[in-house]
């Protein structure tokens, strides 16, 4: 019997090879204050002084669909059934059908008809079966990862130092994609020489913080990846985020211990290798672009200065006449 390449095989490949977008979705959901509120309410915790978002029904629906993500790593969650939430996100457009000519023609035609009918029926039922689909936009993995790392590092740094850490230091710690981090370290002392870099990183950090917040809160409403402002977003709690991430780190250690004797069963090492290669290539390209821009600006400024000198010389010569 002929088979569609989209049936079965796609779900199987997706199960064992998630994309980085799936993992980022999981992380931003972990960080979402709204999703954690849904988790606490589901566990019948009594909460005082909490203002429920107006669109909290959306968050509750997300929680009903995905459930408790605080007691498992992404790896365990995915292999334990998380992959099922992302199956069949696109319609079957083409069928590859092999025909067994040794069978009677009537029987073969019936099989082909049945295969085509199954494909059309599957496309019709796609909407009702589909559970989670990501927003198609220009947000890149590296941009999402920068925002994720910034939020986590901000929470951890605040806790370790026992105070509100300057945003530029967190940006340096997170190694965000910016030329301004060059020459700075987390422990750098503020000086007149690094003032421009600190100001630039501070402005970038404010943007990362706000967009990371909206990414997490929008993820709780199954609108991911999206940095669009959300008036119903709950305030970020870095103490709570620190607790969540410390707990996640403990779960990771236990998971790696379980896989110690069978490292080949870990799926993340397989897809993260491709991600790392992509990030390294992207960073190299951005450094080349930054260098080219700097050189072009320097050249333009030099030319402008030369023109000003020439103009001044002509003015001086004419005035002496």
What can be said about this structure in brief?
With 321 residues, this protein is mainly alpha-helical. The chain is built from 12 helices and no strands. The N and C termini lie far apart (99 Å).
Task: Describe this protein with a few key phrases.
321 residues, mainly alpha, 3 domains, extended, disordered N terminus
What does this protein look like?
The protein has helices at residues 9-16, 20-31, 33-42, 56-66, 74-79, 105-124, 126-129, 141-161, 167-174, 195-219, 238-258, 268-320. The chain folds into three domains: 9-129, no CATH class; 141-260, no CATH class; 267-320. The chain is extended and about 100 Å long. The chain contains twelve helices and no strands. With 321 residues, the protein is mainly alpha-helical. Helix content is 62%, strand content 0%.
Q: What's the layout of helices and strands?
A:
Layout: H1 9-16, H2 20-31, H3 33-42, H4 56-66, H5 74-79, H6 105-124, H7 126-129, H8 141-161, H9 167-174, H10 195-219, H11 238-258, H12 268-320
Helix pairs in contact: 2-8, 2-10, 3-4, 8-9, 8-10, 8-11, 9-10
**SS class:** mainly alpha
Mass-distribution shape: extended
Order of helices and strands: HHHHHHHHHHHH
Radius of gyration (CA) equals 27 Å
Please give the alpha-carbon distance between the first and last residues.
Answer: 99 Å
Strand residues, percent: under 5%
**Helix amount, in percent?**
55-70%
The total tally of domains equals 3
The largest pleated sheet is described as: none
Mean of all residue-level pLDDT scores: 79
According to DSSP, the number of beta strands is: 0
